[in-house]
Amino acid sequence: MPRTPSENERIRRETKEQILKAAMDMFCSKGYHSASIDDVAKQAQISKGLLYHYFKGKEELLAALVEVRISDILVVMEAAEAKKTPAEQIHHIIEGALEDVRRQPEIFRFYLNLFTQPRLDPIVAKYSQKLMDEQARQFEVQTEMFVKLGVVNPRKRSLYFSSTIQGIMLMYSTYPDTYPLDEVKTQAIAEFCC
Q1: Is the pLDDT of residue 119 over 80?
Q2: pTM of structure
Q3: CA 149 to CA 30: how far, in whole Å?
Q4: How far is CA 181 from CA 11, 72, 168, 193, in A?
Q5: Per-residue pLDDT tens for 132-146?
Q6: Which of 49, 154, 164, 167 is the most exposed place for a label (fewest CB within 10 A)?
């Protein structure tokens, strides 16, 4: 019995997710430049030909992973904006960011690595710039939350907030077994949501 169009779409979506997960695993463990398409195909347990059916190459895989990251950022920020008060909005950002790093600390390190790659690498620079541009847009949204919260210097407070949350994420992603994430998260909520 032939597959239905919806079954074909489900298989296509699952295969694409499988490839992206394998690419992230390889990029995290070997680095973007050291990981090969062969590595990704083996990790995904598919042929290289099938991988090329979905993605033209490594750069397209990186582009898709950056789009996933941007989408994840937007989900957290849009859900935060939907909260009634600025304190609830900021609280949601803290929860979303820190729970994200708890689930996948190695992925946070990968994206952090993208930001710190030499700007002489045109491929990596293009995608790290895309991420930075989106984060800059979301920083403005976040700053508006601090404006509504009524803090004295909302831009400076927003910058301090971002630095604090990013620092917590870096520490947890570096020491996931020993870093007291829940205690630090409680402290961040008390400091920024009042």
Answers
A1: no
A2: 0.86
A3: 43
A4: 37, 20, 8, 17
A5: 999 999 999 999 999
A6: 49
